[in-house]
Amino acid sequence: MVLASTSKVVLGCVAFGIFWVLAVFPSVPFMPVGRTAGSLLGAMLMVLFRVITPEDAYAAIDLPIIGLLFGTMVVSIFLERADMFKYLGNLLQWKSRGSKDLLFRVCIVSAIASALFTNDTCCVVLTEFILKVARQNNLPPQPFLLALATSSNIGSAATPIGNPQNLVIAVESGISFGQFLLGVFPAMIVGVLTNAAILLCYFWRYLSVEPTDQQERGAANGPEVVADDEVTSHRFTPARMSHVSSLNPDDFDCVSEPIIRSASVNASVNGDLRSRSINSEADMQFSIKSLRSSSMSHEMVEVSTVPAATLDGASSRKFTRTASQQRSVIIEDAPPSPPDSVAADGEKDKELPEVVEKRWRVLVWKTAVYLITLGMLIALLMGLNMSWTAITAALVLLALDFTDAQACLEKVSYSLLIFFCGMFITVDGFNKTGIPNTMWELVEPYSRIDSAKGVALLGVVILILSNVASNVPTVLLLGTRVAASAAAISPASERKAWLILAYVSTVAGNLTLLGSAANLIVCEQARRAQFFGYNLSFWSHLKFGVPSTIVVTAIGLLIVNSY
After folding, report:
1. How far, in whole angstroms, is CA 130 from its chain's centroid?
2. Radius of gyration for the chain, computed over Cα atoms and rounded to the nearest angstrom
3. What pLDDT, in 10s, does the model give residues 283-301?
4. What would the pLDDT profile of 176-225 be if each residue is shown by its tens digit?
5. What does residue 309 show for φ and ψ, rounded to 5 degrees?
6. Which end of the chain, N or C, is less packed with Cβ atoms under 10 Å?
7. How far is 157 from 474, CA to CA, in rounded Å?
8. With contact defined as beta carbons under 8 Å apart, do 318 and 334 qualify?
9. Which residues have C-beta within 8 Å of that of residue 213, sequence separation ≥ 6?
């Protein structure tokens, strides 16, 4: 393809340059509008500059990819509501044998979860939990945060639904879910194990320090500070997760201050004030029922037993501590006579079936979510259309929820879908200038995948371009060209070229903190975590990311190329 006219080339480069700046640096001082607005601006300029016609702009939007993204977002939202990621978090601590075992588990669990539920979702829901575990065990958070971010990126390379660039490759190449999995999964497993080994070697001395020594070292060094401009608030999350629904009530520690309100008795209160927390689910259900009778619903409660001297003798009262408003309200008086006690016990026994019935409903609903998700994965492995399979699973989940779908659909990251639409138009307009094709013609003779040197050079080109232009635009720019070059060798080589592009463009995100949205999510979530906050700086990530990315990419290229 020859270059277009000079005016079209110049204006197309201007439009693409604006898109690139806002996509890589969404908070630039002269136009801090973010990635989504930047992609729309680039698309609009391509049409206004007549680099691309309005009809071609609409045709450039790849609806199957948009549909696949939307479907996986909705499924991820339901999995989060069904406590899937809470169970994964509990798996990290189950019979843990120390800090090194915990680090290895973080690598394995985050990699597998990312392959099935996308890397961004995994990082959103696991970052704060991993921080909490590290802080509670007096362990340095940095190795565990790096393990989560890097392993999530590597693990997401194994499936077409692991990350957005794999979705593009799967749709553009026509490679089935099973073929994609067989081609990249071995490289992913070896890459995750290699990354875990590098982490253990890099942080072995820190993970071997006794907890008391670790505390003293942390106090001496002080907290690590990172500038706000090293991270971005524009997160490419597949869904805006709500953590409250998946939290365990036992994680909340309620502190009560016994306040005695005795309006009906005129005696002084003697004795010690003793408070107890709600330790069982049945107690919580009973307290919530009692709280609703006092018009104090939707608040965290705690019951305090107060011995008080009354006219009839010693008795006790139960108080409720509201954590949100820091006050105490009497919800139930102690039984003054046996008949009242019998009535109270009868009322509690009458409420227990409701609790049991609610538990069964929740259990059945969670089972349905897991079965539908499993059915979606089986359908993808069978080679059914990926986009409509994901959309069907999402609609079935919405229908089985038996509630208004608005609350669930509001969690979908529509900004990401809009970003993709604008990016499709912008990249297609840039392709019409002829610049990408001209540059590829210079590199193509030396990057053919029928030789080891060609595979190595292709890997370097993808690695650098993914960190300069981001991985999804890299796939859109190089995908068809790399595939066409490999197709001239053999059909098997074409499929291999697509898989190499998928693996390297994904692992390339581990090179720097800005190389992947998952890295930014972990950094931002950790920085803003309440009580367990930690700042992961750009340089601390770079010192580990460079050697890990080079080694993991080289090993993965050998495995994928031998497929």
Report:
1. 13
2. 28
3. 444 444 444 444 444 333 3
4. 999 999 999 999 999 999 999 999 999 988 887 655 454 444 444 433 43
5. -90, 125
6. N
7. 15
8. yes
9. none
